[in-house]
UniProtKB/TrEMBL annotation:
This is Elongation factor Tu. It is an enzyme of class 3 (hydrolase). Gene3D superfamilies: P-loop containing nucleotide triphosphate hydrolases, Translation factors. Keywords: Cytoplasm, Elongation factor, GTP-binding, Hydrolase, Magnesium, Metal-binding, Nucleotide-binding, Protein biosynthesis. GTP binds at residues 18-25, 83-87, 138-141.
Amino acid sequence: SKTAYVRTKPHLNIGTMGHVDHGKTTLTAAITKVLAERGSGSSTQYVSFDRIDRAPEEAARGITINIAHVEYETDTRHYAHVDMPGHADYVKNMVTGAAQLDGAILVVSALDGIMPQTAEHVLLARQVGVNHIVVALNKADAGDEELTDLVELEVRELLSAHGYGGDSVPVVRVSGLKALEGDPRWTGAIDALLDAVDTYVPMPERYLDAPFLLPVENVLTITGRGTVVTGAVERGTIRVGDRVEVLGASVDTVVTGLETFGKPMEEAQAGDNVALLLRGVARDAVRRGHIVAAPDSVVPSRHFSAQVYVLSTREGGRTTPVSTGYRPQFYIRTADVVGDVDLGERAVARPGETVTMTVSLGRDVPLEPGLGFAIREGGRTVGAGTVTSVG
Ligand code: GDP
Ligand code: MG
């Protein structure tokens, strides 16, 4: 039988962000390798590059399926780490995943410096409320020192421009590739990076007393057991036997199983990445974007006001203004919903501007002030916003 999850250290969710090919997946693998080989007191298992980069379909094991996540443990903390795809087509996943991040590792190749997706990910991180970023200046094994100094300056400027206090953000020069090969200079750099994450990313406030809420990221069936939903607990706690409702599916049910990273657990709490087995729920009744919540704890709605930054053309946004009547997709938590935009008296918003708007969504979703979201159109992100009021 499976070993139960024992909560011995504070749990945080972090992830790698940055331009494609700057080394996010290599670094993720290197982190698990360095920690796995540290031995004493660490339960970390090495996860190879190929196991991180493979397609989700191949990965269904236990009732935890979200293989974008790896787990590891430093001396002081337990981390769930999501290796976010770098390509713009996957920004949708980054946005919905990043909504739960307590901190992020921004991976920048010392050889290439800031690239368009580097800037886009920093912007999105800001918009979805990631308040702490640590920089991994990767490929430092191959970079020229003076050029790397310039890249560091450039990254600090970018972070300052987005309100991250670029002067105080830790920037660590690493080589994921050399650390994977076991080169002591570079395994030491991974240790330094992890120390920076441990100390610079604060333990966030967890809303444990709030009613349970989990945005559904994935749904799967376990033969003989039933339907399982996975995702990160946004707030509250949940135990086996608790009643829940699934908003979007209009289903009332009971949680009959609870796991994290393939390990059964008694109680999950805000911040945990979990899989919930739901009693008597048909596989096709639930999907990504639905919300599992304590019964009667949320009232979904479709009208809200928001502060929105319309991405500039340079950031990959639109080339033309948006106006009232615009009808893009809204990515809110894990949901993807069409919405009608009303810009009020202002009537138009140009790329690069920050505006207030009211939105009427195509269906009801749980909304609240402070909630971050992305606006997408034709497969690319064109805006990022925050809900200011509901109704
Ligand atoms: P991702 O797209 O950001 O996940 O990047 P990958 O981890 O897939 O790496 C992209 C390429 O860069 C691969 O060919 C890696 O071998 C190479 N690479 C990654 N990290 C390093 C590094 O630290 N040094 C060098 N020289 N190459 C690296
Ligand atoms: Mg990758």
